């Protein structure tokens, strides 16, 4: 059985725990940890976990709301840290001792963490070698997709046949255009290497939607440039039920998929 929860999802910080249980074994991966170590520990406790319950950390890219305390967490708790070589370079090429293993993730190369198989895939985003992630326990697959600016065939190929999808719905185009953001920031967010607008997310969902998709989570909503009701309206053509990840609280465990 595979399940997942969010410790927070937005510009202030992102972190998702994915857990697989098989018989007497449990495997857990923290995907991104865009908070201070103390804050992360508090959020893990809210989900009934501590850092010692984790088996690995995967960082999607170097932006602060995703990498956060990853290096400190991995060193302090001797956790394997997975990230792309580009992300590693972007955060200053940190060194690790023998107790902490650093692994370089690559597009299309599977990573095994206990009973979880992680499949990284590249996305269009203004970072150094960003990767998003599909995870499987061998029976069910989920995918986490945030921080992408546009649709690619490669991206869509990794979203086929899912049982659960965490999908970025960052902004509403009209709200972004009317915002007080500088023109350069509007161009970055709304550009092909920025973040997913609601209508683009709806296109992605329509392309990968099938009868076996059990859980859909809309994530990484901009607090200034989006609204839950706008997200629901944009996705309504494909789904009736969508969980909206809270920027501060994330969402509770979704499982049994």
Quick summary:
This protein is α/β, with parallel strands linked by helices and 257 residues long.
Please tally the β strands and state the result.
Answer: 14
Determine the CATH superfamily: Ribonuclease Z/Hydroxyacylglutathione hydrolase-like
Rg calculated over all Cα atoms: 17 Å
Shape: globular
CATH C-level class is: Alpha Beta
Strand ordering within the main sheet: 6-5-4-3-2-1-14
- Output the helix-strand order: EEEHEHHEHEEEEEHEHHHEHEE
| Strand proportion | 25-35%
Distance between the termini: 6 Å
Can you name the CATH architecture?
Answer: 4-Layer Sandwich
Structural class: alpha/beta
- The CATH topology is Metallo-beta-lactamase, Chain A
Q: How many helix segments? A: 9
Biggest β-sheet strands, sense, barrel = 7 strands, mixed
Report on the architecture of this protein.
It contains 9 helices and 14 strands. The chain is an alpha/beta fold and 257 residues long. The protein has a single domain, classed as Metallo-beta-lactamase, Chain A (4-Layer Sandwich). The mean pLDDT is 96.
